[in-house]
Design a protein that fits this description.
The protein is an all-alpha fold. Helices cover 74% and strands 0% of the residues. The chain has 14 helices and no strands. The termini are close together. Bound molecules: zinc ion. Zinc ion (ZN) is lined by residues 6-7, 31, 35, 37-38.
């Protein structure tokens, strides 16, 4: 049994669409590192030219690494080069993603500066959803499972999941914190959004063990937008960060973390079925 497990077509298709999610994404990458058969099947799910390009680029990258900014930073922080490569290939750690995020935050800061209370509502709307989006898009089709890397760093899928989630959070959270520091009316709300942000991230990770992370992220986004819009309508946008609600976010986040911990056993099992 252990030698006959292969990724099914649905999973490969979702992976190519960037919809595989943290849990399945990490498991599949684990498997792709070792399974030539599934790598070639992945090709049938990707439009003709990209895959070959991706593999060529990855092979070149493994032999003559040209690390991106996130990867260089990780290495400087003491992460081994193969680890840094595997972490930094997440779509939401790309330079283009980070530029898009920085542009969005600049827009938010401007709207708060010139838009008063409505601007603050905009910040409260965006800030907790940034890490949620980053984690939801941490796995995509051209994540590079080179066997050179796998030989250097045989991965537990759960370790990859946690490392990459950590990397996504440590790149996007400082950007949001920096933009919060630029807000004209700096108050405790400039950091209090971190609690719903971390809680929602845990919910997306836990939910990704059942459904696509983008589905969970969109559901959370809709609920959060509704809450912020309602509070803003009463001219009290910061009400979404009332102490009682902060306790609720913390409780939900802890519950989600617990669920994820239990469900990670499933991940380890899937990752070892090679
Ligand atoms: Zn396979």
């Amino acid at each position: 049994m252990s030698s006959t497990w292969h990724a099914d077509d649905l999973l490969l298709a979702r992976y190519v669409d960037g919809q595989a999610g943290p849990l399945d994404g990490a498991s599949l990458e684990q498997h792709l590192l070792r399974c030539e058969h599934c790598r070639s099947r992945l090709a049938t799910h990707v439009a003709a030219p990209p895959l070959e390009l991706v593999w060529t680029r990855l092979r070149e990258q493994a032999q003559a690494p040209a690390p991106g900014p996130v990867e260089r930073l990780l290495v400087r922080l003491g992460v081994s080069a193969p680890d840094a490569l595997l972490i930094a290939v997440a779509p939401s750690l790309r330079t283009s993603w980070l530029f898009g995020l920085a542009a969005t935050l600049a827009f938010v800061v401007l709207s708060v500066t010139y838009g008063g209370a409505r601007g603050l509502a905009f910040f409260l709307l965006v800030a907790p959803l940034v890490p949620v989006a980053g984690v939801a898009f941490a796995y995509g089709p051209d994540v590079d499972p080179t066997y050179e890397v796998s030989a250097a760093a045989p991965y537990a899928a759960s370790r990859l999941l946690l490392l990459r989630t950590g990397a996504v959070l440590t790149t996007c959270l400082p950007l949001v914190l920096a933009s919060a520091a630029l807000l004209p009316a700096l108050s405790w709300t400039a950091v209090a959004w971190l609690l719903p942000a971390l809680s929602f991230t845990a919910v997306v990770l836990a939910a990704s063990t059942w459904t696509r992370p983008t589905v969970a992220a969109v559901a959370l986004g809709v609920a959060w937008s509704g809450a912020v819009a309602t509070a803003a309508f009463d001219r009290q946008p910061a009400a979404v960060l009332a102490p009682a609600l902060l306790v609720l976010y913390a409780a939900v986040g802890l519950a989600a973390a617990l669920v994820l911990r239990l469900r990670l056993r499933h991940l380890t099992l899937l990752g070892s079925l090679t």
